[in-house]
Amino acid sequence: MHFMIVLLVLFVVYWLVIYLFFLYVFSRKIKVDMEKFMPDGYASILEQRKNRILSYPMEEVRIESFDGLQLYGRYFHKEGHDKLVVMCHGWKSPWYVDFSKLAIWFYEQQNCDLLIMDERAGGKSEGKYVTFGLYERKDIHDWVMWAKDKQELPIYLYGTSMGAATVLMVASSVNDIVSGIIADSPFLEPYAELKDFAKRNIHLPEFPFLPSLNCLVKLLMKTDLKSVNALSSIQSAAMPILIFHGDLDFFCNVAVSKNIRDLHFPNISVHIYPDANHCSSYAKHEKEYENIIENFIK
Known about the structure:
The chain is an alpha/beta fold. It is built from 11 helices and 8 strands. It is globular and about 80 Å long. 40% of the residues are buried.
């Protein structure tokens, strides 16, 4: 009897730990303090960049997602611009943390309109859960359709981290609409990304942890971490795709981008930087990064 009680307690504790990890990874309510990863003084620089972008002529936009959520975006337009870049931020990260400097470069030096949205469960967009691209890919598709109806400029997608994975996941469904995709530090499949992160960073085995976590995802989010793999999407994508990744990435394994490179897709160009960490290729190689993108969108 005592043994059965101990087993029951261990079972309850195990599932409590899994549930807490589920909340940390997916729940909107559990915030991640991005500033603790920043150098001293960098937060004020980001605030200045954010305010600079928000000073551009802007239209606030709201669309309804496939599952009834109100999604919020900002459309920055200037007469004479000849391209539109749809910018997609990463996991639980404000947009201005992920790409405010590059957004300024796109808008001020490359004559690009910008569509910057808050992903579901972030910022001013509704939603209980971040879904690692599983639902965000449908949201991005809807944003692209909004952009297509709004204006007649060539559309490019740019994403970082989870946003990079998402723009790759949506590639095949926007084949005839989007002129190109830029992905910085992507993963391909949510399940594989979480399994790899757990193994490399907290030395946690896949079994029984990941199957248990996926059970909660199926139960509470009505989806499956294995249901989407961006590789199948980019295999059937015709538009040019540009991928950046740092060899020192602690979050999204660079092996993913190296594998894509080694498949030699004729429409995909992959740039790996040995000295760059997660989403830091631009910071480490600013001019080269800009030159590659400038040639790409021309």
